[in-house]
Amino acid sequence: MRFLIRRLGFFVLTLWAALTINFAIPHLLPGSPVTAMMARYHGHLTGKSLEAVETALGINTHASLLSQYFTYLGNCATLNFGTSVQEFPASVTSIVGAAIPWTLGLVGVTTVLAFLLGTGIGALAAWKRGSRLDSFLPPLFVVGTGLPYFWVAIVLIMVFADINPWLPSAFGSDSSYVQGWNSDFIGSVLQHAILPAVSILITSVGVWVLTMRNTMVTTLAEDYIRMARAKGLSGRRIMIDYAARNSILPNLTGFAMSLGFVVSGAVLVEYVFDYPGVGFQLVQAVNNEDFPVMQCLFLVITVAVLVSVLLADIATALLDPRTRNAR
């Protein structure tokens, strides 16, 4: 219980710091949502028109900074992030809320698959250390980690969409289908997700393969592994219950960080494929100086990472009781 309370305390403190920084950065940067909106009207907003825009965007420049800060905290608690400059008068919550499912569906599922696939291959390579399998698989997958996301995405588009028009090269689905839980739309979504998903898998599996292999090689040299062999346990049980289970613990934090950053999306991949996820939305917000959307996205990404790390700490404590007693 003390471990859980301590972790929750760190979570709350870090979350408060992230909220404060997220509030401070737009106030320190030159420009504002109002000036960005004025640029759209070529600077012709003055007087009551300017005040109307400030009200519509949820900005009160006449209030003190402290008052704005507490208003901001209250808005965050009620998920009221204001109005988008880029897609005025749409709310920021609706824009970000529409982008998150696309990113979770693509990057989230792909990240889990990459972790499971890479961990399994890494464990198998470590168990067969020195064999042809160990000499072939890890180097093959590790090569992919050195390839940029966008380069792999462009090559896949050229091969499977341009030269051989087998798969779509852009967007999340075919615009001719009505969005909903129908077979045509779901099939279109899956078809459009193939190329971006493959590009993410190619560039991310190698990290988990190499990490799991190196950790498990060290674990296989431990005394309790020798004891398990001496007791006559089967090789499969030693590999899974003794070696792999203890080797995977250090990877949980890294996996949690990866899950946290899933919300941010693979920005370059989503941008190359015009995929309507959080990463693409973030690029659009930066290009259009859409401060409210940027502020909301940064906060969502931060909260996702903090929650993922907290869950990883709890999972590690459940799997390894020694961490609960660490000071």
TrEMBL record:
Record keywords, A-Z: Cell membrane, Membrane, Transmembrane, Transmembrane helix, Transport
Domain ABC transmembrane type-1 stretches: 100-312
InterPro entries named among the record's database cross-references: MetI-like, MetI-like_sf
CDD domains listed in its UniProt record: TM_PBP2
Cross-referenced SUPFAM superfamilies: MetI-like
Family of the protein in this entry: Belongs to the binding-protein-dependent transport system permease family.
Protein's name in the database: ABC transporter permease
The organism's taxonomic lineage, starting at the top: Bacteria, Bacillati, Actinomycetota, Actinomycetes, Kitasatosporales
